[in-house]
Amino acid sequence: MITFDAVSKEYPDGTIAVDRLSLTAPSGQITVLVGPSGCGKTTSLRMVNRMIEPTSGTITIDDQDVTSVPATDLRRGIGYVIQHAGLFPHRTVADNVATVPQLTGTSRRAARVQALELLERVGLPTSFADRYPAQLSGGQQQRVGVARALAADPPVMLMDEPFSAVDPVVRDQLQREFLRLQEELQKTILFVTHDIDEAIRLGDRVAVLAVGGRLAQLATPAQLLATPADPFVAGFVGRDRGYRALGFVSAELPLAHEPAVALGSPVRRALDVALDDWVLVVDDDGAPQGWLHLVGAGPSDDVVAAGMLNLGGTLATAGGTLRETLDAALSSPSGRGVVVDGDGRLLGSVRAADVLDHMSAAPRERGPAAVREGGRA
Amino acid sequence: MNLAAGTSPWDLFGYFADHRAAVLHLFWEHVWLSVMPVVLGLAISLPLGYLARRSRWVYAPAVSVTGLLYTIPSLALFLIMPTLLGTRILNPLNVVAALTVYTVALLVRVVADGLGAVPDDVAQSATAMGLTRTQRLRRVELPLAVPVIAAGLRVATVANMSLVAIAGTIGIPELGQLFITGFQLSVNGPYYPPILLGILLCVLLALVLDVLIVLGARLLTPWQRVTAAR
Fold it and tell me: How much is the pTM?
């Protein structure tokens, strides 16, 4: 648990970076500090490992004042990940990961073995161990950065915009794996970002900071979307709030039977089962592959092939959120959103109108009280 | 030292064969007179450059004052040194000391800038991982400064090579003496062998030392040879 108690940082020129910040980052959870530039989020983060000393107030980790131990000892016990990873360009990947264990006296050999394990853990092949950072892509470097921060198995991790410098596809992947890793490791994480979507996706709790280092709201992502505390937070949380809030409500909708044909069946068969111009095509395991448009599908003796399919629709998982269910319906060319089970097999379909009916039938249930605590988009 | 003339005015190999021992002696003197100051200069410049790096207040004066030292004519410095050091005028230590001054003049800025060349995020993560100031210097800043410092060393070494030759005019034995001998033997018409031999050996030595520095730097920076994957 990291606790800020009335922490302020004022620079000699009178700039107030952080203004009497009090907040608690609970153990085993991700607490996100989010806000526009100049809101003191990075300053707050760096005061935890004393790269910046507060002007007043105290910061404690598990009730121990951070100033009660030498700064270097404190830092070795805190994982730290930054935007461009900040890997040592002159050390190999394995040496980079082993930095802190080697500082604390782990033997070279043991540190290397451990580094290889960590590489696998963050999704990198161990063959990367002897490469230099310059030989890795930005996303791979960032993974090494995470492995390095985890090397000393610190209970606390500080992350300063770790996924901001990579492209959206890689960022999405890194975020997903980060959540998976956190599920296993249960670290106490303080995470800084300027991206509200990232905050909502990753945070168990989100602290919105305003310019001048004022804490505007500390809440779960769902609460933040449903009941912003003031106009600043409302503005910062931004558009599509209602839609994004659906990401925190699970959808329990009755599914309609969706006829489907397997890849390789004759088009004739699709014509037989069709509800309208669109027929869902699945593979041998029953996993949806795409939609076949019967208008212009070719002679009925032809065989249904992958190249003939429209891939527009997204898939929703049964028991998933209203947001993904609605999205599946809205994105489907047939207007029927495909719902699959945990193994990706077709269960049935749902229409956007069904989702909306479900929502208007029980409007009060979607208030802040009913949203899933700690749920994630 | 007997460096008398042979028959042909161009026969430098014949000249070398005739005066092998004497010329080799001058060569080795030249080697240590030019290498020693680089080694000492580097040893002095590392802490000075580090201090300059750490504080803006030290940087400006350190870099400009040491830079100014380079404007002192070498001959003058060779002549002043005995007074400063209490040595005799022909003591080769005068040359070593003077050239060390020039090396420091060149290297302080190089070391300071080299140590400062650590990318911001790298310096930050080093601090955040709990490296002490000394560990940061030894494990991060110094290794990353090697390419810059090596480039400075190459300049300093070549510059020293030619400055050493000037010490021949005040009678210090090194390759510069071959030029003086050539000049003296040319009173009855041009006689080039000692001069050409001196130039040849100087160039050879410069090349060898340069290659040694480049190789040393390569050994210390395997990470510089990898090509970017992006």
Answer: 0.76
pLDDT tens-digit series, residues B20-59: 888 888 899 889 888 999 999 999 999 999 988 888 888 8
What ipTM was predicted for this assembly? 0.79
CATH of domain A260-361: 3.10.580.10
Instruction: Tell me which residue of B127, B103, B110, B126 sits closest to B53, measured CA to CA.
Output: B110
Structural domain including B138 reads 28-220
Whichever domain contains B127, its CATH number is 1.10.3720.10
| A119 three-class SS | helix
Q: Is the pLDDT of residue B5 over 80?
A: no
Q: Nearest chain B Cα to A84, which residue?
A: B121
Cβ–Cβ contacts within 10 Å for residue B86, how many? Answer: 8
Specify if B76 maps to a domain: yes
A258-289 pLDDT, tens digit each: 999 999 888 888 888 888 889 999 998 889 99
State whether residue B130 sits within 8 Å of chain A by CB.
yes
Best of B129, B131, B224 to disrupt the A interface (most A CBs within 10 Å) is B129
Check CB contact of B126 with chain A, cutoff 8 Å.
yes
Name the residue with tokens 């989702």: A355
Identify the sign of the CA torsion B4, B8, B12, B17: negative
Residues of chain A with CATH 3.10.580.10: 260-361
- Residue A73 contacts by C-beta under 8 Å, 6 or more apart in sequence? B130
- Please, which pLDDT band fits residue A376 given cuts at 50, 70 and 90? very low
Instruction: Tell me how far apart the 2 most distant CA atoms of chain A are, in Å.
Output: 81
Top-tier CATH class for A2-245: alpha beta
B93 in a structural domain: yes
